[in-house]
Amino acid sequence: MTQRIVVGAALIDGGRLLAARRSAPAELAGRWELPGGKVEAGESPEAALVRELREELGVTAEPGERVAGQWPLRPPFVLHVWTARLLPGSAAPLPLEDHDDLRWLTPAQIWDVPWLDQDVPAVERALAHLGRATGDGRRATSGGTDDGTGPG
Ligand SMILES: Nc1nc2c([nH]c(=O)n2[C@H]2C[C@H](O)[C@@H](COP(=O)(O)OP(=O)(O)OP(=O)(O)O)O2)c(=O)[nH]1
Protein backbone atom coordinates (compact mmCIF):
# COMPACT_ATOMS: atom_id res chain seq x y z
CA MET A 1 0.00 0.00 0.00
CA THR A 2 1.29 3.46 -0.83
CA GLN A 3 2.04 5.43 2.27
CA ARG A 4 0.25 8.72 2.75
CA ILE A 5 1.94 11.46 4.68
CA VAL A 6 0.30 13.27 7.55
CA VAL A 7 2.27 16.41 8.37
CA GLY A 8 2.46 17.52 11.98
CA ALA A 9 3.69 20.96 12.98
CA ALA A 10 6.01 21.46 15.89
CA LEU A 11 4.85 25.07 16.09
CA ILE A 12 7.32 26.87 18.33
CA ASP A 13 6.97 30.34 19.79
CA GLY A 14 8.92 31.87 22.65
CA GLY A 15 10.48 28.51 23.52
CA ARG A 16 7.11 26.79 23.80
CA LEU A 17 5.48 24.08 21.67
CA LEU A 18 1.82 24.21 20.67
CA ALA A 19 -0.22 21.14 21.57
CA ALA A 20 -3.75 20.68 20.23
CA ARG A 21 -6.49 18.51 21.73
CA ARG A 22 -8.44 16.54 19.13
CA SER A 23 -12.21 16.81 19.19
CA ALA A 24 -12.85 13.97 16.69
CA PRO A 25 -13.03 11.11 15.79
CA ALA A 26 -14.23 9.52 19.03
CA GLU A 27 -11.25 7.19 19.36
CA LEU A 28 -8.80 10.13 19.24
CA ALA A 29 -10.90 12.82 20.97
CA GLY A 30 -9.42 14.19 24.17
CA ARG A 31 -5.87 13.24 23.24
CA TRP A 32 -3.27 15.80 22.22
CA GLU A 33 -1.42 16.02 18.93
CA LEU A 34 0.66 18.24 16.71
CA PRO A 35 -1.68 20.30 14.52
CA GLY A 36 -1.56 19.34 10.85
CA GLY A 37 -3.18 16.89 8.50
CA LYS A 38 -3.01 14.87 5.33
CA VAL A 39 -0.85 15.97 2.42
CA GLU A 40 -3.06 16.23 -0.65
CA ALA A 41 -2.11 14.86 -4.09
CA GLY A 42 0.32 17.19 -5.84
CA GLU A 43 0.98 19.18 -2.65
CA SER A 44 4.34 19.44 -0.91
CA PRO A 45 4.40 18.55 2.79
CA GLU A 46 5.52 22.09 3.61
CA ALA A 47 2.59 23.59 1.67
CA ALA A 48 0.22 21.17 3.39
CA LEU A 49 1.58 22.27 6.75
CA VAL A 50 1.00 25.95 6.02
CA ARG A 51 -2.51 25.19 4.70
CA GLU A 52 -3.50 23.01 7.65
CA LEU A 53 -2.27 25.55 10.19
CA ARG A 54 -4.28 28.27 8.46
CA GLU A 55 -7.43 26.12 8.30
CA GLU A 56 -7.22 24.58 11.77
CA LEU A 57 -5.76 27.42 13.79
CA GLY A 58 -6.26 30.56 11.70
CA VAL A 59 -2.55 31.38 11.78
CA THR A 60 0.02 32.39 9.18
CA ALA A 61 3.03 30.16 9.71
CA GLU A 62 6.15 29.14 7.90
CA PRO A 63 7.79 25.73 8.04
CA GLY A 64 11.29 25.41 9.44
CA GLU A 65 13.35 22.24 9.53
CA ARG A 66 12.16 18.66 9.27
CA VAL A 67 12.21 16.78 12.56
CA ALA A 68 14.15 13.61 11.77
CA GLY A 69 12.11 10.44 11.68
CA GLN A 70 8.73 9.15 10.60
CA TRP A 71 6.10 7.51 12.72
CA PRO A 72 3.48 5.00 11.59
CA LEU A 73 -0.17 5.91 12.10
CA ARG A 74 -3.23 3.95 11.06
CA PRO A 75 -2.27 2.50 7.65
CA PRO A 76 -1.62 3.89 5.08
CA PHE A 77 -0.69 7.03 7.03
CA VAL A 78 2.72 7.98 8.34
CA LEU A 79 3.53 11.06 10.42
CA HIS A 80 6.24 13.47 9.31
CA VAL A 81 7.00 16.51 11.45
CA TRP A 82 8.39 19.96 10.65
CA THR A 83 9.16 22.75 13.01
CA ALA A 84 7.16 25.86 12.22
CA ARG A 85 6.92 29.41 13.46
CA LEU A 86 4.27 32.09 13.38
CA LEU A 87 4.99 34.88 10.93
CA PRO A 88 4.99 38.43 12.27
CA GLY A 89 1.42 39.72 12.24
CA SER A 90 -0.12 36.25 12.45
CA ALA A 91 -3.20 35.88 14.58
CA ALA A 92 -2.83 33.85 17.75
CA PRO A 93 -3.90 30.24 17.20
CA LEU A 94 -7.52 29.31 17.87
CA PRO A 95 -9.06 25.81 17.85
CA LEU A 96 -11.16 26.45 14.72
CA GLU A 97 -11.30 22.89 13.34
CA ASP A 98 -10.53 19.39 14.62
CA HIS A 99 -9.49 20.64 18.07
CA ASP A 100 -11.25 21.92 21.19
CA ASP A 101 -8.27 23.16 23.20
CA LEU A 102 -4.75 24.44 22.61
CA ARG A 103 -1.83 24.81 24.97
CA TRP A 104 1.62 26.35 24.62
CA LEU A 105 3.94 24.03 26.54
CA THR A 106 7.40 24.79 27.87
CA PRO A 107 9.87 21.89 27.82
CA ALA A 108 9.07 21.29 31.51
CA GLN A 109 5.34 21.04 30.72
CA ILE A 110 5.62 18.92 27.61
CA TRP A 111 4.36 15.70 29.21
CA ASP A 112 1.56 17.41 31.15
CA VAL A 113 -0.95 16.51 28.41
CA PRO A 114 -1.94 13.02 27.22
CA TRP A 115 -0.46 12.96 23.72
CA LEU A 116 -1.70 10.40 21.23
CA ASP A 117 0.45 7.30 21.80
CA GLN A 118 1.79 7.43 18.24
CA ASP A 119 2.84 11.06 18.73
CA VAL A 120 5.02 10.48 21.80
CA PRO A 121 8.25 9.60 19.92
CA ALA A 122 7.66 12.50 17.52
CA VAL A 123 7.17 14.94 20.38
CA GLU A 124 10.34 13.63 22.04
CA ARG A 125 12.24 14.47 18.86
CA ALA A 126 10.52 17.84 18.47
CA LEU A 127 11.53 18.73 22.02
CA ALA A 128 15.16 18.81 20.93
CA HIS A 129 14.27 21.66 18.54
CA LEU A 130 12.63 23.82 21.19
CA GLY A 131 15.74 25.37 22.66
CA ARG A 132 17.44 25.44 19.28
CA ALA A 133 14.69 27.42 17.53
CA THR A 134 14.54 30.21 20.05
CA GLY A 135 17.86 30.20 21.89
CA ASP A 136 17.18 31.09 25.49
CA GLY A 137 13.46 31.20 24.93
CA ARG A 138 13.36 34.51 23.09
CA ARG A 139 12.93 34.85 19.35
CA ALA A 140 16.09 34.25 17.36
CA THR A 141 15.27 37.15 15.04
CA SER A 142 15.16 40.69 16.34
CA GLY A 143 11.59 41.84 16.20
CA GLY A 144 11.62 45.54 17.05
CA THR A 145 9.18 45.93 19.88
CA ASP A 146 8.53 42.19 20.03
CA ASP A 147 9.32 41.06 23.54
CA GLY A 148 9.71 37.45 22.42
CA THR A 149 6.74 36.12 24.30
CA GLY A 150 4.54 36.00 21.20
CA PRO A 151 0.83 35.38 21.13
CA GLY A 152 -0.96 32.91 23.33
N1 LIG B 1 -2.80 16.20 12.34
C1 LIG B 1 -2.37 15.16 13.03
N2 LIG B 1 -2.95 13.96 12.83
C2 LIG B 1 -2.50 12.93 13.55
C3 LIG B 1 -1.45 13.07 14.48
N3 LIG B 1 -1.24 11.86 15.07
C4 LIG B 1 -2.13 11.00 14.51
O1 LIG B 1 -2.28 9.82 14.77
N4 LIG B 1 -2.90 11.65 13.57
C5 LIG B 1 -3.95 11.05 12.75
C6 LIG B 1 -5.30 11.58 13.03
C7 LIG B 1 -6.00 11.41 11.71
O2 LIG B 1 -6.46 10.06 11.61
C8 LIG B 1 -4.87 11.59 10.69
C9 LIG B 1 -4.79 13.01 10.20
O3 LIG B 1 -6.01 13.41 9.78
P1 LIG B 1 -6.59 14.87 9.97
O4 LIG B 1 -8.03 14.71 10.22
O5 LIG B 1 -5.81 15.67 10.96
O6 LIG B 1 -6.25 15.40 8.54
P2 LIG B 1 -7.05 16.36 7.59
O7 LIG B 1 -7.27 17.65 8.31
O8 LIG B 1 -6.31 16.38 6.30
O9 LIG B 1 -8.42 15.58 7.51
P3 LIG B 1 -9.54 15.33 6.42
O10 LIG B 1 -9.26 16.20 5.25
O11 LIG B 1 -9.43 13.86 6.11
O12 LIG B 1 -10.79 15.64 7.17
O13 LIG B 1 -3.68 11.28 11.38
C10 LIG B 1 -0.85 14.32 14.66
O14 LIG B 1 0.08 14.53 15.47
N5 LIG B 1 -1.33 15.35 13.92
Automatic annotation (TrEMBL):
GO molecular function annotations of the record: hydrolase activity
Cited CDD domains: NUDIX_MutT_NudA_like
One Pfam family linked to the record: NUDIX
Gene3D superfamilies attached to this UniProt entry: Nucleoside Triphosphate Pyrophosphohydrolase
UniProt keyword annotation of Metal-binding present: yes
Necessary cofactors: Mg(2+)
Source organism superkingdom: Bacteria
Known catalytic reactions: 8-oxo-dGTP + H2O = 8-oxo-dGMP + diphosphate + H(+)
EC number: 3.6.1.55
Domain Nudix hydrolase: 2-133
Similarity comment text for this entry: Belongs to the Nudix hydrolase family.
Protein name as catalogued: 8-oxo-dGTP diphosphatase
Source organism (scientific name): Streptomyces lienomycini
